[in-house]
Structures are given as structure tokens and as C-alpha cells.
Design a protein that fits this description.
This protein is mostly helical and 219 residues long. Helix content is 54%, strand content 9%. It folds into 2 domains: 121 residues, no CATH class; 70 residues. Helix 6 packs antiparallel against helix 7. It is elongated and about 80 Å long.
């Protein structure tokens, strides 16, 4: 797999093949620096930090690109992933086959301009997170419990004010009920999100495991 802009130099293909001959099923390429604009490098770094926090697979590395070599059994396993929006590197990390890295030097773009606008990159990033993680759904539960805890301590504070200081009538009950109901709603949404997340994982129909090697096939 190699991009058509030739920022990944084809001269490294030989090194990828050598690593594959050593028994690695996936050979990634690692770049010490990318010849992109500063803005694109910053946004890529931010995305990787967010993705690694939300991801439920191996951590994403900003220095690793799509330039890679994969074996036939990795291709066969990849073809079993029927997601409508498949993200190449994210799926490779999830497959779990033996892998290694080859260090390369990133080149300037040979010709033309990228067809990926900022909006497309944002959409690509959001798809990558939402198609590979349900953690966002579970975060709302934590927010809900936090809101309920805030409501409890705020209620104690308002009761103290109500007893020892003059505050507008009805303010205490209104604020406590508002915070408490908000927390309960968020917890309910979070619980619903867990069920939706389980449905989401189930309907993707991904294989439960992939076979790396078969032993004693004749027995």
C-alpha cells in the first residue's frame, strides 16, 4: 500500500520485502518527520492524542503512515471486515498479526495538490473514532454521575444557606431539582448508549478471532 503522491519513496519497498521475508505479516513504515504543512502536522498530532484516549485497540502513532506491506493472510483477514467505512491502519492494528517497522524519510509532494480538504480530514477522523470505539457513549455515564454528585453537595450548601442566610424562596428546590434531573438524564442516556454500543459492535459482524497458523491439519 502506497500513496500516489510519492511522498513515500518507492525505493524503500525492497526493505519492506526483506522484513516480510523474516516472517513479519505486516511491515509498517515510520517517519521521523513529515513533509506536510505545520497546520496539518499539528492537527494529525491532536487527532492521534484524542484517538488514543478513545480507542479500544492498539495506540495510533502519528509517525506511521499507510505505506506498508501485508501478507496474503492479512489481506484475507482484512477482507472479512465488512465495515462500510474501513480505516486501513486502524483495522490492521486490530487484526493482531506479527508486525514490525521500517524507518523511512518522508519526501516532498512530487506533483499536484491533495484532494483531502480540512473538512474531509475532520470527517475522516470522526469516522475513525466512532467506527472503532464506543467509549464516547460511556463517557456520558461518568458525566451523569458527576452531575448527580455536584447536585448532592450543592443541595447541602443551599440547605445551609436556607437555614442560616436569607435566599429567595424556591431557589433551593429549583436548583437542586435542575442539577439532579440533569444528572439522571445523562446517566439514562449513558446506559442507553451502552446498549447501543453493544448493538453497534454486534451488527458489524467482525470475526471473533483470526487464525494465524494451523497445526496438525492432516490429523
Amino acid at each position: 500500500m502506497i500513496d500516489c503522491d510519492l511522498q513515500d519513496d518507492p525505493k524503500y519497498i525492497g526493505q519492506l520485502i526483506k522484513e516480510a521475508d523474516r516472517g513479519f505479516d505486516i511491515v509498517y513504515t515510520s517517519k521521523s518527520s513529515r513533509k506536510h504543512s505545520g497546520f496539518k502536522n499539528i492537527t494529525a498530532s491532536v487527532f492521534n492524542r484524542i484517538f488514543n484516549y478513545l480507542a479500544e485497540t492498539q495506540a495510533s502513532r502519528s509517525d506511521v503512515g499507510s505505506f506498508s506491506l501485508i501478507s496474503r493472510k492479512v489481506i484475507d483477514a482484512y477482507k472479512k471486515i465488512n465495515d462500510s467505512r474501513r480505516h486501513y491502519l486502524m483495522i490492521l492494528r486490530e487484526l493482531g498479526f506479527k508486525y514490525t517497522y521500517v524507518n523511512i524519510e518522508h519526501q516532498e509532494r512530487f506533483e499536484g495538490k491533495t484532494s483531502y480538504s480540512f473538512a474531509k480530514l475532520v470527517k475522516h477522523g470522526i469516522d475513525g473514532i466512532t467506527f472503532n470505539s464506543t467509549k464516547l457513549l460511556r463517557i456520558s455515564i461518568g458525566i451523569g454521575f458527576a452531575m448527580c454528585a455536584i447536585a448532592f453537595f450543592w443541595a447541602l450548601y443551599l440547605v445551609f444557606l436556607y437555614i442560616f442566610r436569607a435566599i429567595p424562596e424556591g431557589y433551593t428546590s429549583l436548583m437542586v431539582m435542575l442539577l439532579l434531573s440533569t444528572g439522571i438524564i445523562l446517566i439514562s442516556i449513558g446506559i442507553t448508549g451502552i446498549y447501543i454500543g453493544n448493538i453497534f459492535q454486534q451488527v458489524k459482524g467482525r470475526p471473533l478471532y483470526f487464525i494465524d497458523e494451523k497445526l496438525n491439519e492432516d490429523s
